[in-house]
Write a structure and sequence with these properties.
566 residues, mainly alpha, two-stranded antiparallel ribbon
Length: 566
């Protein structure tokens, strides 16, 4: 199956708008999409293409969403303790307020926040337009299936708005365009979850379990999103019911974590749903993961021995997440004490979970399959401010023939970004089982994830590939005689270890109801290492969600209302 090409359609088709009078425009428009020349399949693909958060306005900056990436690295990773902002110091601020996101001082004028809101509604507009076009063409052969796909995509975008803003303005294909500026953002959460679930259930009724093209939504993707919606609402039995549908499908934990994080196509068996990226598709660089463009390591003087020649070194793994990979003498995480002492960047004697060196670049440790050199201190732009760890996870193998270039855009290529992986789905079921007091089932699933990590090839020593790069140790939890509080701690730690820096941790902290305490403790401890955290605080009841962009409030004449505290 070939990659799903993301076709950019220059104009978003908005149906149902009254015709303009003849004197409104004195120039006839060219290259207009109309019902006479509309390709419905391309219109659907155009909706898929909005998953990458590029606005496709023709402006170069709008094609590079590195200040509002769909991976949520700047809205989850750097707000949750998984990562530091990074880059060239606290004043290096793509979008103007990325440092503010990190220290939880975000304002309604933030360009980062506005672009995230804008990306969601850009996608929703395309989806609604495509649904309208399909409904206006009842003889289109794939109409029901394509509308099912689009409704799952719409549920995804509204889910992202819910996670980030706590509420949203609901617009669908039946909303008159003239009404859009009049709709308040005051819907209650039950109503909004109902709309998300309504789209998913409608899609489940018509979608096939498999699709002939890689990247298209199928029935199991819809079940996965429904399980996640139930997870965020704490409806545990429904989480299990829907997760089981996905787990029974063809998805599986792949054998090699290094390849999962590095090799295009290798993760297809594990990714339930992913943003599809490609090269050699006729565009300037390829349809690449520009949202994570900034997150590859730096290279001094474009050293040709460096795997990527250059990079901006943003989204840097934190000392806290590195410490989380330490294990005890039984190969189990230090659930309560992992952050009591820092793991030194060059210490390879203290036992650690082997996932550490797959996910995070440490000085002296082998970088994927690169033979030029191991990771070096000078791959960092600002050690004094952000330390020496660099993002290794989900960076393409520098030797891959599906890499876009040997230079710019650095660590980009046809490596997809996972939105939902089967490992995530398994951990949803584990969490729901534990919450329903089925501790043994929950711990058994956690051990399934740990078994994959234990059996996956470890990172090897750069100078002696026959030995491991560090003292790796990982074993399984007991499954009987485990208390519920212990099981909850184990589950939450396992989610972090397995899914670190994939855009999940902040939203987990919020839905668990522990964000304020956890993040304030984190920033207080980190302030001794990262001075910019000094005095920073997370305000409960405000900072769980982002402010509504002021520009949107102004555009509606105050119809939209700001969140409390902003």
């Amino acid at each position: 199956m070939g990659k799903f090409k993301l076709i950019v359609i220059a104009a978003i088709v908005m149906f149902g708008v009254a015709s303009c009078s003849e004197d409104y425009l004195d120039v006839s428009p060219e290259n207009v999409i109309s019902e006479d020349n509309l390709d419905l399949e391309q219109l659907v693909v155009s909706a898929y293409s909005s998953l990458d958060y590029r606005f496709n306005t023709g402006q170069t900056r709008d094609n590079w969403p590195f200040d509002h990436a769909p991976s949520n690295w700047c809205f989850s990773d750097i707000r949750s303790g998984d990562a530091y902002k990074g880059g060239g110091g606290v004043g290096d601020n793509p979008g103007g307020s990325m440092h503010g996101l990190e220290i939880h001082q975000v304002f309604a004028s933030s360009e980062n926040v506005y672009n995230l809101w804008r990306a969601g509604y850009f996608g929703i507009a395309r989806i609604n337009s495509a649904i309208t076009a399909l409904n206006n063409n009842p003889d289109f052969a794939n109409k029901d299936v394509r509308i099912g796909e689009l409704k799952v995509l719409r549920a995804h975008f509204y889910f992202e708005l819910m996670k980030n803003f706590g509420s949203f303005v609901y617009i669908d294909e039946n909303t008159p365009i003239s009404d859009v500026p009049k709709i308040e953002n005051s819907f209650d959460t039950d109503f909004l979850w109902g709309k998300i679930e309504g789209d998913l259930n409608a899609a489940i009724a018509v979608l096939p379990e498999t699709q002939p093209e890689l990247g298209r939504v199928n029935k199991l993707v819809a079940y996965a999103f429904l399980a996640k919606a139930k997870l965020f609402q704490g409806q545990w039995a429904d989480v299990i019911t829907n997760a089981d549908k996905v787990i029974a499908g063809p998805y599986q934990l792949v054998d090699d974590l290094e390849k999962l994080y590095s090799t295009p196509g290798y993760g297809n068996a594990e990714n339930v749903f992913a943003i599809q990226y490609s090269i050699n598709d006729g565009s300037e660089f390829g349809n690449l993961d520009f949202g994570n463009l900034l997150n590859s390591p730096d290279s001094p003087s474009d050293d040709t021995n460096h795997p990527y020649l250059n990079g901006d070194d943003f989204g840097k793994p934190s000392q806290n997440i590195v410490n989380a990979f330490k294990v005890d003498g039984n190969g189990l995480p230090l659930l309560d004490t992992y952050n009591a002492a820092d793991l030194s960047p060059t210490d390879i004697t203290i036992p650690v979970d082997p996932r550490l060196d797959h996910a995070i670049g440490r000085p002296g440790i082998t970088w994927k399959q690169w033979v030029g050199m191991p990771m070096q201190n000078n791959w960092n732009r600002d050690i004094a401010t952000y330390g020496v760890y660099v993002r290794k996870k989900n960076q393409i193998d520098p030797n891959s023939d599906l890499r876009a270039s040997g230079g710019f855009p650095w660590a980009k290529g046809a490596l997809d970004w996972p939105i939902i992986k089967i490992s995530d789905v398994l951990l949803w079921k584990a969490e729901a089982s534990i919450e329903l007091n089925n501790i043994e089932t929950g711990m058994t699933i956690i051990n399934q994830i740990r078994t994959r990590a234990k059996n996956s090839p470890y990172v090897y020593d750069f100078n002696n590939p026959s030995i491991d790069a560090a003292n790796y140790s990982i074993e399984l939890y007991p499954t009987t005689g485990v208390t519920k509080p212990y099981a909850i701690k184990a589950l939450r730690m396992e989610r972090r270890l397995e899914l670190n820096n994939e855009g999940h941790h902040f939203y987990d902290l919020v839905r668990w109801g522990i964000a304020a305490n956890w993040i304030n403790d984190y920033m207080l401890t980190e302030s001794g290492k990262r001075s910019y955290y000094s005095g920073a605080s997370f305000t409960a009841g405000r900072d769980e969600y982002l402010p509504i962009p002021q520009i949107e409030i102004d555009a509606t004449g105050g119809v939209y209302k700001q969140r409390s505290g902003y």
